[in-house]
Amino acid sequence: MTTDKPLHTSRHKGGSGNRWLRLRRVSDRRSLCIVTGVLNSYSRLISFCLGYRTGLRVPRLAGAFVLFAGLFSGQIFAQTTIKVAAASDLQPVMPAFAYAYEKKTGVKLSVSFGSSATLAEQIVNGAPFDVFLGADFVFPEKVVAAGLAATPAPLRYAKGTLVLFTRKDSGFNPLHMEALTDSKVTKVAVADQFQAPFGRAAYAAMNKLDLMKAVGPKLVSAPNVAQTAQFVVSGNAQMGFVSLTLASSPQMKEIGNYVLVPKAYPEILQYGVVMKNAEHKAEATAFLDWVRSSEVQDKLKDFGLEPVDTH
């Protein structure tokens, strides 16, 4: 078992034997810039999320990585890097995927994170991604409709869960949904419902639970679900609707606590597509097939995702 002492990427120097995935920036200036990496000498990864004025680090540490790494070995494709566009809720998940998949195949992942809408728009406008992992069906379907996907329809790979998150020093511990209507709560963060599927789910839940009249005036909008979490962590909002993948990550659990939002929202079924003209189409197809495989599906709950029927 590895330790929980964080690694510091800012001091990494070339020639050390460490191999880092390339930094990818989405063009939307509001989106997060993420670095994910694979270090040969450590059986874990760290992903850093930088946004607006406050940097939020959300690592997915050793335990889950070891579970994934233990499943796979060998190499199929050598010295290849797949460019992945991933919805923001996958920010704590992709480092483990990157580590396990490189361990299995030798293929590296270069990952860009953003709202599903932003990433889909970039792909339609010519961004050279190989794979798009969205947070719903709608935005991957836009890529299919544009004639850019290798398959006639998006492929399901996971189901997301919506939670309400707050800092431990907010005074709401344990946290309950009723806290949203407390007069001491003046700002509640939520992702843009037109850009981010988790934002759409949050609005659906608030409407179904008759909370919009009380909570609506308190809402502050973020461009994606990871930025929503950052609003809460930085103190710019007292609570926020985020994904379970984010809220259950080790560092977020140190900072705050969460409660599952009642299932008063449509299922957050997450879909992916491989690009028809992907630079590494065969490797990209193999990667998405791997994410949808039973070996990976059986481990999704460790990361705050639910397995789905991929047949």
From TrEMBL:
SUPFAM superfamilies associated with the record: Periplasmic binding protein-like II
Family assignment from sequence similarity: Belongs to the bacterial solute-binding protein ModA family.
Organism: Granulicella pectinivorans
Stored InterPro entries: AvModA-like_subst-bd (IPR044084), ModA (IPR005950), ModA/WtpA (IPR050682)
GO molecular function term, any single one: metal ion binding
Name listed for the protein in its UniProt record: Molybdate transport system substrate-binding protein
UniProt entry keywords in alphabetical sequence: Metal-binding, Signal
Range of residues in the leader sequence: none
GO annotation, biological process: molybdate ion transport
Taxonomy, superkingdom: Bacteria
